[in-house]
Amino acid sequence: MSPSRRRFVQGLAMGGMAASLGLTSRSLWANAEQQQKMPTLRGTDYDLTIGEQVVNFTGTPRIGTTVNGSLPAPILRWKEGDTVTLRVKNNLPESSSIHWHGIILPSSQDGVPNISNGFHGIEPGTTHTYQFKVAQSGTYWYHSHSGFQEQTGLYGPIVIDPMEPEPFTYDRDYVVMLSDWTDEDPTVVYAKLKKLSHYYNFNERTHKDLMKDLKEKGLARTWSERKMWMQMRMSQRDLADVTGYTYTYLMNGQTPADGWTGLFRKGEKVRLRFINGSAMSFFDVRIPGLKMTVVAADGQYVQPVSVDEFRIGVAETYDVIVEPDDGAYTIFAQSIDRSGYARGTLTPDAGMQAAVPPMDPVPNLTHTDMGMDMSAMGHNMHGMGGMDMKGMDHSKMAMGGMDMKGMDHSRMAMGGMDMKGMDHSKMAMGGMDMKGMDHSMMAMSGMDMKGMDHGPHPMGGKSTPVHPSDFSSGKVVHAPTEYGPQVDMRAAAPRYRLDDPGVGLRNNGRRVLTYADLRNLHGTNDPREPDREIQLHLTGNMERYMWSVNGVKFNDAEPLRWKMGERLRITFVNDTMMNHPMHLHGMWSDLETGDNDFIPRKHTVIVQPGSRISYRVTVDAEGGWAYHCHLLYHMLGMFREVQVS
Amino acid sequence: MRKINMMILALSMSGSALAGGMNDDPFLFMLKMDKFELRDADEGTALAWDAQAWAGRDLNKLWLKSEGEKLSGEGTEEGNLEVLYSRAIAPFWDLQGGWRHDFRPTPDRDWLAFGVKGLAPYLFEVDATAYVGESGRMAAALSVEYEYMFTQKLILSPELEMNLYSKDDEEVGVGTGVSDLALGLRLRYEIVREFAPYIGVNWWNKFGRTADYAEAAGGETSDVEFVAGFRLWF
Ligand SMILES: [Cu+2]
């Protein structure tokens, strides 16, 4: 990389500034031409300089964290099989680092201060050299793992060209990096959340919604629907902690006002490499008028699936192929809470734009998202300690499958839960008649209760044997450490919801990608059954803005110690109201989607609120690894160190 | 003083630097002026405040609370200051203990304070404190507040406040039992989260001996006041 080349590779941040100066349409045209070219560095040898630069996304100049003067950082284009050398100079006044997200490499090159073997951050004014062999191909990204630098701009795409020909064809290849920018100092954002956790939420349900509900549903139903939320002191609109109130959502560093532009010629197939490089924002992505064929997830090929829309969690990547006709299309990425969007245009003509669709209505979280939907009869309620469910109205539960009239709950081990007066009488369960059934019989073997998620819960009697490959059973146990002021909720009936696109995307009339759609193109990489299972509960207290795993925050936690060569099943149980994108460094997460033959590999897995999900990990990388929620302001507590030896 | 030193020690115990220099539990400070308002009372215009400040971490904090009211032209009519150590004991509840000093009316009174503060089911904000004072006097104070959102920024907030005493204390004008009860209704507009002007009404009533003392002193025993003020925090 010659110095002149590096000087040529200027920041996209400057594109943002130029556009805000009010240029003529002619220069906007030129600007669009400029914008489609994100700075790209190629080869095996790189000099990257982390620094500070004035950027302007909102009309107010601010200091951003840049790499070689660019925000987002330049695209690094590697080739599978190459050994890359990256000299990273830190010109910040504080310690910095770069982590290569999703890249399989030795711990010492992973770039997490004080966790990666022998790495303690890059001190101001010093240069750190990373060197490793690129053992994979696909779409990835890199970002700082120090302080809040990721929020202020230190993130960039990685594209790795494969050695083997790809299993699909395309004519054009664009990176579409989504991110969130705030003019506020991230430490101020964090402090505000600690002082008033709903500080940024201006989507709460108000008088108007109440009146509408009362009119449409009547008093009784409105009350019963809202009751549990009020009892639990939670908000049905707890969708995002940090929102469009402070965020400007960016697509390849461009604001929605400017819009990123990708050009194509009629008849061309365009590959879009979506990367969610934001600090806190989930996006729902669609291109009105175009079907998207998803061909890779987190850099790994999947069997092509055609969708209208997909949700991309923080740190995930999806490669899609689109075949646009002769017109302009808007790439529309609305934030999960509908407080804003990032936008770009696919067009054959830089002067042509498409209409920007309105954002979808703000969704309400449901009892399912709370892990409180008993409709699947998840009787694992022993984690509900002290919750009063007196008078809880089950009358509207649609339980397809069983009549449980007169069902005796008295023998359930439910620690402190008061279910007096719980009315099961109206449960319409058509099919199986359980009138008068005593639940002590539930340990009966051979009875088909699929979908009922009875698991081997402590109901007296023997527990049902669990086949190791039957990922959908297994007991949910809330650890004693989950009880205390640091945890405000424990999901009573967390369910596998692989085919659930998630809050805000259910039944929206569009074909939305779900994890159940992800099937590894080449079949399961490691067909071994897991040797052992680790259950990790994602916990928090939204009111106090505290986040943890199993109720224990990173500062107080012992490292997870895994044995080299073992095959683990990690089961996540989300005991909070929010989606958490969980990211394991250094090793693949083989996501159990129900199809054992085509298990897809991911580096980041969304755990939906009130759900459980599991993946297998082949422990094949020695050393220290980070394991955490990729929401930046959750990560401080919702974090574990993994030691593999 | 030793007590305060111990509190400060407890506050600084948790939290340390970690990977990448991040600390999930930074030492923070917050000042909240929940009420700062003019009250249009029968006896003239009064200035009232309800302010709180805390410093500390997620689970351990040092709180300062002050409440009071001052009639125009006269001295402070009512005013107190509390210094409390606060510890989270449940997801939505903090246990608070410390000291309260009533500096008005005179003579001043000191109390040991012990109470809970938190968010009750159905989203009621509750602050309930029991007090033990000199010569075995006991007292209790309760405040309950709710927020009803007309819009994201226009919020109606009903509030109940009451005080109880175990003994007559003629010098400061309080009698046994429920001494006074106030119901407030304030409508605020949050220009930003941190600053919200409001208007409202406040009805209060003195009971029993407390009412007798007030009457004897030539004061009111009940009033409906219009209020206007602002909320502020940072
Ligand atoms: Cu999280």
UniProtKB/TrEMBL annotation, chain A:
The keyword Metal-binding applies. This is Copper resistance protein A. GO terms for cellular component: periplasmic space. Keywords: Copper, Metal-binding, Oxidoreductase. It comes from Thiolapillus brandeum. InterPro entries: Cu-oxidase-like_N, Cu-oxidase_2nd, Cu-oxidase_C, Cu-oxidase_fam, Cu-R_CopA, Cu_oxidase_CS, Cupredoxin, CuRO_2_CopA. The keyword Oxidoreductase applies. Transmembrane segments: none annotated.
TrEMBL record, chain B:
It holds the Pfam family CopB. Residues 1-19 form the signal peptide. GO terms for cellular component: cell outer membrane. It comes from the Bacteria. The keyword Cell inner membrane does not apply. Keywords: Signal. GO terms for biological process: intracellular copper ion homeostasis. This is Copper resistance protein B. It comes from Thiolapillus brandeum.
